[in-house]
Amino acid sequence: MDEIELTGPRHGSIARDFADGTFVAQCIHYSLPNLGVQIHNYPSASSVAKKSYNWSTLQQKVFKKLKLHMSKEEVADIVGIKPGAIEKFLIRLRDAIDVYQAQSERRQSARSRSRDIEAPHHHHPSTDYGESAQDGYRTHPTQPYHDVEPTPPQAASQVQSMARSEAPRMSLEDRDRELEELKEGARLLEEKIERQQQLVRLKDSRIQVLLDQIHG
User: Fold this and answer.
1) Cβ-Cβ contacts under 8 Å for 102 (sequence gap 6 or more)
2) Is residue 108 pLDDT above 90, yes or no?
3) Does 77 reside within a domain?
4) If you count DSSP H runs as helices and E runs as strands, how many of each does the chain have, helices first?
5) CATH code for position 14
6) Inter-CA distances, 179 with 102, 118, 174, 175, 184, Å
7) Is 79 inside a domain boundary?
8) What is the pLDDT of residues 151-204, one digit of tens each?
9) Residue 43: exposed, middle, or buried by beta-carbon count in 10 A (0-12, 13-18, 19+)?
10) Do residues 54 and 20 make contact, with C-beta atoms less than 8 angstroms apart?
11) pLDDT by residue (tens digit) across 65-79?
């Protein structure tokens, strides 16, 4: 979010700049363009009522999709420009965006692999080997009938059975590989979430130190 170019009036401090929710809407819009955030729905505001309305709209239309909850007290602190309130919220917002992006990438990857697995394996023994039901002879479609040695009926049946079982066997192998990849993806996501939680705790402690210094 640090690299996003925000547009709108500036008031000289992050608390005042983000108090009306306009810049928050822009951050989410540019970080998650597919989320459908309409930034024109969040105009700059100076009154408490209009600022609160912007935050209420964000909660109803945007934060629910990110599984990001805000209490009334938190909104009141941000709108009221309470020191440290917006900083804490922006940390939670960035983590929610990171988790949403990771989950979206995982779902997209899973859908792509699922399409590959579910793609039908076309294997037609009858097109690979010409078959005559009357005399038990098999011919390759690119070879004349008289150039192929006759195949005993028992051997012909074995070849046909192996051909039929090849596609299901390959499908099971693909499914096993898909399962392992999904497990690995879940493990990586859990590790990333844990790192994000550690970062939140670290930044909370730093913010608290800064607040103590300010009030001290």
Assistant:
1) 189, 192
2) no
3) yes
4) 7, 2
5) 1.10.418.10
6) 18, 14, 9, 6, 9
7) yes
8) 455 555 555 555 555 545 556 777 777 777 788 777 777 777 877 777 777 777
9) middle
10) yes
11) 999 999 999 999 999
Residue 77's alpha-carbon distances to 86, 167, 186, 203, in angstroms, are 8, 62, 36, 19
CA-nearest of 185, 28, 14, 9 to 92 is 28
Residue 119: pLDDT over 50: yes
Euclidean distance between CA atoms 57 and 42, whole angstroms: 8
Whether 94 shows a pLDDT value over 60: the answer reads yes
Task: For residue 131, list its beta bridge partners.
Answer: 138
Q: What is the reported pTM?
A: 0.52
User: What Å distances lie between residue 180 and 113, 142, 174, 175, 183, CA to CA?
Assistant: 12, 41, 10, 9, 5
* Long-range residue pairs from 150-159, CB within 8 A, at least 24 positions apart, any chain: 156/131, 159/125, 159/129
Q: Is residue 135 part of a domain?
A: no
Q: Which domain holds residue 87?
A: 1-92
Please indicate, yes or no, if residue 60 is contained in any of the structural domains. yes
Q: What is the pLDDT of residue 53?
A: 96
Residue located via tokens 């690119």: 142
What is the total count of domains within the chain? 1
pLDDT single digits (tens) 46-56: 999 999 999 99
Question: Residue 80: which residues within 8 A CB-CB, separation 6 or more?
Answer: 48
Q: What is the reported pLDDT for 79?
A: 97
Conformational region of residue 132, where left means phi above 0, alpha means psi within -120 to 50, and beta covers everything else: beta
Please count the residues of the chain: 216
